């Protein structure tokens, strides 16, 4: 791992869970971590309910664009965090993989998405501690 670790968050649509996780990591780590995210079947836009839940805690993800993950993103990652992509996620030997079993916020009301958001926040904080990265 480099002095500035690279974390890749992946899920199916790259519109909810992975976008919220990337938002939290950018917010909590600043430039001390390189953050990327992607999906196997990217949506057209970030889930608006996920964006609203993040806005409530002062993190704006509405300008993020869901995108397909790339082999280059996997190769560059020190840590890949998977969230429901199952066997679709490529495997790169020597890369650390962590699976976060999180509910999908798609189609969920704001009250449910808030819980997912808060779960992700705790997991991102723990990941930063594990990486030895100081929080902003």
Structure description:
- α1 packs across α4 (110-131) and α2 (48-56) crosses α4.
- The protein is 37% helix and 15% strand.
- It has helices at 17-29, 48-56, 71-76, 110-131; strands spanning 6-11, 34-39, 79-82, 96-99.
- α1 (17-29) links the parallel β1 and β2 (34-39).
- The chain has 136 residues and is α/β, with parallel strands linked by helices.
- It contains four helices and four strands.
- Strands 2-1-3-4 form a four-stranded parallel beta sheet.
Percent helix, as a range, is 25-40%
Number of strands: 4
Summarize the main sheet.
Answer: 4 strands, parallel
Backbone shape: globular
Radius of gyration based on Cα positions: 14 Å
Strand order of the largest sheet: 2-1-3-4
How far from one another are the termini? 20 Å
Name the average pLDDT: 94
Question: Can you count the helices?
Answer: 4
Beta-strand percentage?
5-15%
Helix-strand makeup class: alpha/beta
Return residue spans where pLDDT drops below 50 for at least 5 consecutive residues.
none
Which series of helices and strands comes N to C? EHEHHEEH
């Amino acid at each position: 791992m480099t002095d500035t670790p690279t974390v890749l968050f992946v899920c199916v649509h790259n519109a909810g869970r992975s976008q919220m996780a990337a938002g939290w990591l950018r917010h909590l780590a600043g430039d001390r971590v390189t953050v990327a995210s992607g999906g196997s079947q990217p949506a057209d836009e970030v889930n608006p309910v996920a964006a609203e839940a993040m806005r409530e805690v002062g993190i704006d993800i509405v300008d993020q664009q869901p995108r397909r993950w790339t082999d280059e993103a996997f190769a560059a990652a020190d840590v890949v965090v998977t969230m429901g992509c199952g066997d679709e996620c490529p495997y790169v030997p020597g890369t650390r993989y962590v699976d976060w079993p999180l509910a999908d916020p798609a189609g969920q009301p704001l009250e449910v998405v808030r819980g997912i958001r808060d779960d992700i926040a705790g997991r991102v904080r723990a990941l930063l501690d594990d990486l030895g990265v100081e929080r902003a």
